[in-house]
Write a structure and sequence with these properties.
By secondary structure, the protein is α+β, with helices and mostly antiparallel strands. The protein has one domain (about 1-225). About 20% of the residues lie in helices and about 15% in strands. The protein has 4 helices and 7 strands. A 7-stranded antiparallel β-sheet has the order 1-5-6-3-2-4-7. Strand 2 (about 135-140) and strand 3 (about 150) form a beta hairpin. The longest helix has 25 residues, at about 1-25. Pfam families: TNT. This is TNT domain-containing protein. InterPro entries: Fungal_surface_NADase, TNT. It comes from Dothistroma septosporum (strain NZE10 / CBS 128990).
Length: about 230
């Protein structure tokens, strides 16, 4: 049994290494100047958005477009900030981005099919059932009521998440809605490469938990990492 668990974990590590190498060959790091806020192309920058007066927090005051300021400190700077490959709207204007990725009636984001996994050549989601070993570091952008995590430190662009996953209340406990966990009891998950979506490249690795992250914390399978005490984990 132990051998099978270790073999599964090594498969996951190999998948991570492969997909990171693919993306390294096909992307370049973003500059410290945020190109997504450049109004040269988008002369009516906020057209097609739900513009409000909350422009100090959200782009165009629309929470769906994410925070105005991206991280500038490690480790988040390299994951989703100016030193990362992340471009919020995939090269289009904010209104165009929302028109492409949200429901025209409800305004809510439309998420990918097949639970967000990349499809194989046979048209099936590429999924492995594996066990996560004690000591594995995971992270998540979003509340603990969700069930998806990734290997800690995975670039945001490879997660295919929409901009509002970065929204967090000012002065909140978890800046940019980012939380890190360590596996404290072995458990099984679904694992596979992430489909490109929301104008992002995807191809990172995602884990679909057997229950919500909050449940796994409450039952002792995951422990929150104190990012204040150990900001670089």
């Amino acid at each position: 049994m132990e051998f099978n668990r270790m073999r599964s974990f090594h498969v996951v590590c190999a998948l991570v290494a492969y997909f990171l190498s693919v993306n390294a060959q096909n992307t370049t790091a973003g500059s410290t100047t945020d190109p997504d806020l450049n109004t040269t192309r988008c002369t009516n920058f906020c057209a097609g958005t739900n513009a409000t007066n909350s422009t100090d927090l959200f782009i165009c005051g629309d929470p769906r477009l994410g925070p105005v300021q991206l991280p500038t400190a490690l480790p988040l700077d390299g994951i989703v900030g100016g030193e990362s490959t992340y471009h919020r709207f995939g090269g289009v204007c904010p209104g165009e981005f929302l028109a492409q990725w949200t429901n025209a009636t409800t305004g809510s984001f439309v998420y990918p099919p097949f639970e967000g996994y990349t499809l194989t050549t046979s048209g099936q989601p590429g999924i492995l059932n594996i066990s996560l070993s004690v000591g594995t570091l995971l992270d998540r952008f979003g509340s603990e009521y969700g069930s998806y995590t990734s290997p800690a430190g995975l670039p945001y662009a490879q997660r295919s998440l929409p901009p509002p996953n970065l929204n967090a209340p000012p002065g909140g406990m978890y800046p940019y809605n980012y939380q890190v966990y360590i596996v404290t009891r072995t458990f099984k998950v679904q694992a596979g490469p992430i489909a490109a979506w929301f104008g992002q490249q995807g191809l990172g690795l995602q884990f679909l938990m057997p229950s919500s992250v909050r449940d796994l914390v409450d039952t002792g399978y995951l422990t929150r990492l104190n990012q204040t005490a150990d900001p670089l984990w």
